[in-house]
Specification:
The chain is built from two helices and eight strands. With 177 residues, the chain is an alpha/beta fold. Helix 1 packs antiparallel against helix 2.
Length: 177
């Protein structure tokens, strides 16, 4: 058996050598990947401030009877339901950034009057209204310095605990002889 006095310095040396290797991020790998920014689309309103749209599933099928809510900031401006073909229309809207919610999905659009709309503005919006679509899972990045510290303290604690137990057993044997 290696005595406690020799084991602790050895464990500390191993932990100190292992910590920097565990804490390094592989070369060329970002610590956390940047999130994709959502795209805000420009929409040209039709006369009367009307916005037309269609609610589609991820398989491009129309969603009938879906609740559509149009918000300006935190204020609900309009509510409607989609028709059998997934289409909807909302009147009385004004220019500005609006959020269109279909089910649990939200989409941001920048609304323009017909005269002020940019040339590439769309006239009919298409929104995804599927609820609960999961295409993958995101695992948060591992904090390697914390993992390295936990391993270090675990190794040191285990070595110290083992040696204390071993020293107690040796003392008991010496006392009983």
């Amino acid at each position: 058996m290696i005595p406690l006095k020799k084991m602790v310095p050895l464990a500390l040396c191993v932990a100190m050598l292992a910590s920097p290797a565990l804490a390094q991020t592989p070369t060329g790998t970002p610590a956390s990947a940047p999130r994709k920014q959502f795209e805000v689309k420009d929409v040209s309103l039709q006369p009367g401030g009307m916005m037309q749209g269609v609610a589609l599933s991820t398989s491009a099928k129309p969603i009938a009877g879906a609740d559509v809510v149009v918000c300006y900031g935190t204020h609900v401006i309009a509510r409607t339901k989609t028709a059998a073909d997934g289409s909807f229309a909302v009147k009385g809207l004004r220019a500005g950034a609006h959020t269109v919610q279909v089910g649990s999905r939200s989409h941001v659009f920048r609304l323009w009057t017909a005269a002020a709309a940019p040339p590439d503005a769309i006239r009919t919006v298409a929104v995804n209204g599927d609820n609960g679509v999961v295409r993958g899972q995101h695992m948060p990045p591992v904090n390697l310095p914390v993992v390295a510290a936990a391993l270090t303290f675990g190794v040191i604690g285990g070595v110290i605990g083992y040696n204390i137990k071993d020293d107690d057993n040796n003392r008991n044997r010496a006392a009983s002889s």
